[in-house]
Amino acid sequence: MARFEHTVTVAALDRHWFEEAAGHVVDLFDASREEGGEILLPDGRPVYGLRLLKGRHLQSGAQYGEDPAQKDREGAPEVAVLREWRPSRTVEVESRVAEEGMSMRVGVRLREPRTPKALEVSLDGHNPQGGSLYRFSGRAKADLHAWWAALEQPSSAPPAARAPVIGKAVHRLGKARLTVTPRPAEDSTWRVTVVLSVRGRWLLRPVAAVGLFFARKPIARGFREGVDDAAEEWAELLAELPSLHGEALRAEIADALTEPPEPVDPPDPAESPGPPPKVL
Predict the structure, then answer these.
(1) Is residue 191 part of a domain?
(2) Which segments within 144-201 are labelled E, that is strand?
């Protein structure tokens, strides 16, 4: 088995803002209605890019997706199925995606959505035309109650005995386990430790051990870079979040749900750096 560990410092997310925003999102959808396939918020504006394709709105089995006119080039838009809608207890959604020959089922369950307590994610993928080497599965759970509890401890306190975030992936060739544990830092930031453990399965364990021995350094480097990139993306996300509360935050969320995302301008070739000068 190979084990990789990396710790990064990230900006803290305000718990009260997070729970307030989650409550507004749930309340907006809970008060929404369907009309002609469109999902209308309480103020009558349609949610952008989301339509009811089959079933009854906010009822178990309802299918949602993009407007048929907005299908991707392959003609297979993502379809999400609502498995459960109980805003005070559980919201569960399952989606199926076909991309590059792979068929994937993604399940998301949020417990106590108005003040999120736990998030569970499942992933199962396979290639219908491939064998067992083209099949994988993964499960992850974020215990948000334990996450916030870990951050309420003094910075000198030892880390939690059980990581608040645990993910597992299984393939015919091996298994992987990922844990994420936060600790408060003295400057009101978070120190987040990510640990990845990888091992082969059954008779392939000796082969996997040899492969990991020779590939350990590049894997460790890639793992650290991946965690660092995730920390940078987290910082960018926090920078874009509105520092609003109450009705102002609710209105901002409603605007974000009903307005199309701003297009991303492609990089200007004239501003891109040219090739390095030759050294004579």
Answers:
(1) yes
(2) 165-171, 174-184, 190-200
Averages of pLDDT over each 10 residues, the chain, 280 residues: 91 96 97 97 96 96 80 64 96 87 90 96 86 84 96 84 94 88 91 90 54 67 94 95 94 95 61 48
User: From CA 50, how far away is CA 93, in angstroms rounded?
Assistant: 14
Give the start-end residues of each E strand in 89-243: 90-99, 102-111, 118-126, 135-143, 165-171, 174-184, 190-200
Residue 267 within a domain = no
Total domains in the fold of the chain: 1
Asked whether the beta carbons of 75 and 64 are under 8 A apart, the reply is no
Write down the pTM of the prediction: 0.82
Residue environment code for 151-170, b if the CB has 16+ CB neighbours within 10 A, otherwise e: beeeeeeeebeebbbbbebe
Residue 24 within any structural domain of the chain = yes
What residues does 2 pair with on adjacent strands?
198
- Domain extent, residue 13, equals 2-253
